[in-house]
Design brief:
heterodimer; A: 270 residues; alpha+beta; Thrombin, subunit H
């Protein structure tokens, strides 16, 4: 091997080792710098995409109706969220009255955002939304749609106008979940390589004789510090009972192929 | 030579910008055109080893900056079996490996047989995706390989490979404008005619 090639190889390996030993914080800083440099291109690109989408939609609806529909959708989403929150509060109130250990629940504040990019990476199931830190969004916040839980915020661009959402269908998005009408609690997550049109979620660590059946709804437990309680996740599709524990396949309540508007939960129970 | 090397680095950086606007084809098993990888592979066969390694470092480093996921978060008491992240920087080594593979057929390329390099770029992308998926399985456990994933990798490789003639054409044009020959032996054979 030529001396120059050997030096280049050693430098390359040194650089690779340096990169491999970066901490999570350093990686986030590198990512922020990368996306800051990309921001002007991404902004103009998403503008073009938005214009193209609006043009296509205009052929079907008038602009006025489109705006009204969008506003109504957002309001409907908000009202559904508030309604589900009230139900949770009612239940909580009843429990607390019995326990005489009242703890006041505060507000449930959400920010509406649009999905501007889908699946920008090869293996991870993520989407990008047009809201960032300028609207109070930070990492590890729950993201909902009218139909249920969408995922959580994974990254917020340093520009403050965009965020990346890790979808519930990704293997890395884990949610503490409970099955309605049973004491069963488990961890729900997506499946590896689950890019099918009809993705299924895995509900693991259920008890060996879990009394769950297809059709039962699955909700968040509120444990784990990321997702609020009683958010709809999906319905049980099938149950696989093992010797030590059981696992269920869950059909998500959200249609991930048709994500348009989402809501980021800024604050809930305090 | 130096001008051409700088041009390839700039081209690779431009590929990162263009890649942002290349969505996954949902109708073809979420396959996509991996322009960054393709450009690196095509460049790798036209440059020397030191430049190839520099391109591999830049390509892998920025690819991971673009794709890396954040930490899991949440209460570790509840989420006891957290899903592991891939280490930032693993792509640098994968890019380096692909680069060495492409350099293996550099003698053929220098004879003007760029078609072999175009074909190998598709094979290299397939190997890259397979290696990446294997690493994910190794790090996270529970080896699973569905038909959908296999089709996704295959279609991605084929789609990416189809664009390699365009990239080679771009590289030949750039090389000409830099007064640099990237297939010198082919040129030497033609001159006596």
């Amino acid at each position: 091997m030529k001396p120059l090639n050997l030096i280049a190889l050693l430098l390359f390996l040194g650089g690779a080792v340096w990169a491999l030993t970066r901490s999570d914080r350093s990686v986030r800083e590198i990512q922020n710098a990368y996306y800051s440099a990309m921001a002007p291109f991404l902004k103009s690109g998403s503008k073009l995409e938005t214009h193209a989408r609006a043009f296509l939609e205009e052929t079907r609806h008038s602009k006025k109706l489109e705006a009204e529909l969008e506003t109504t959708r957002e309001q409907l989403g908000r009202l559904r969220l508030i309604e589900s929150r009230f139900r949770a509060l009612e239940q909580e109130n009843s429990q607390l009255r019995h326990a005489l250990n009242f703890k006041e629940a505060t507000r449930f504040d959400v920010v509406a955002a649009r999905v501007i990019r889908r699946n920008p990476t090869t293996w991870w199931q993520t989407v990008e939304i047009d809201a960032g830190s300028k609207r109070g969004i930070g990492t590890q916040l729950a993201v909902l749609s009218n139909e249920g839980l969408v995922g959580k915020i994974d990254r917020v661009d340093s520009g403050g106008e965009r965020s990346s959402v890790l979808l519930l269908t990704d293997e890395k998005c884990q949610v503490s979940a409970r099955v309605e009408g049973s004491p069963e609690v488990g961890i729900l997550s997506g499946q590896r390589g689950g890019f099918d049109a009809d993705p299924m979620l895995r509900l693991r660590f259920l008890s060996a004789n879990a009394a769950v059946r297809p059709g039962q709804r699955v909700f968040t437990t509120g444990r784990g510090g990321i997702f609020q309680a009683n958010i709809l996740l999906g319905t049980i599709h099938s149950v696989d009972k093992g010797a030590l524990d059981s696992e269920a396949l869950v059909r998500p309540s959200v249609n991930f192929a048709d994500l348009g508007a989402v809501f980021v939960v800024l604050s809930a129970d305090s | 030579m130096i001008r051409y090397s700088i041009a390839t680095i700039l081209l690779l950086l431009a590929a990162f910008v263009v890649q942002q606007f290349l969505p996954a084809f949902t109708g073809i098993h979420h396959s996509r055109i991996l322009l960054v990888q393709l450009l690196f592979l095509c460049c790798a066969v036209t440059v020397g080893q030191p430049t190839m390694l520099l391109l591999a470092f830049i390509g892998g480093f920025f690819w991971d900056a673009q794709c890396a996921l954040g930490p899991h978060g949440g209460d570790p008491e509840v989420y006891r079996q957290q899903v592991e992240n891939l280490r930032f920087g693993y792509s640098i080594l994968l890019f380096g490996g692909m680069g060495f593979l492409m350099q293996g057929i550099q003698p053929l390329f220098k004879q003007g047989k760029w078609h072999f390099s175009a074909l190998l770029s598709g094979i290299a992308v397939l190997l890259y995706l397979t290696a990446e998926y294997t690493i994910i399985n190794f790090v996270r456990g529970e080896f699973t390989l569905s038909r959908a994933t296999m089709l996704q990798m295959t279609y991605t490789s084929v789609l990416t490979m189809l664009f390699s003639p365009i990239v080679f054409w771009m590289l030949f044009t750039i090389a000409r404008s830099c007064d640099h020959s990237i297939k010198p032996e082919a040129g030497r054979r033609r001159r006596p005619r």
